[in-house]
Fold this protein.
Amino acid sequence: MGLEAVAQGLSDLTNGSIDLTTAGFILGGAMTVAIYIALTWVLSDDTDFNLFASLGIGIILSVGFSWFPAWTVIFVAIIILYAVFIMRGDSGGGL
């Protein structure tokens, strides 16, 4: 029994109104937010590094726990690259 049973338990807790994929995304998102809070607390600094590091760690662990599909890593990497390289340019608005 692995951690995918936790997603199944969350799905069962809601009497099946949340499917297994959605339960996995909820658990993965909660874990990613918890990692972000822990990194911000430990490093005593609210920087972009904490955000990107916790996002990366949370996504990779969620895929490893079978809570997220594998394509999520590629999708988030594209979003991070867009945010870092394109939105931070001199020519546009940005984050």
Remarks:
- Residues 4-86 form one domain.
- Residues 10 and 23 are 6 Å apart (CA to CA).
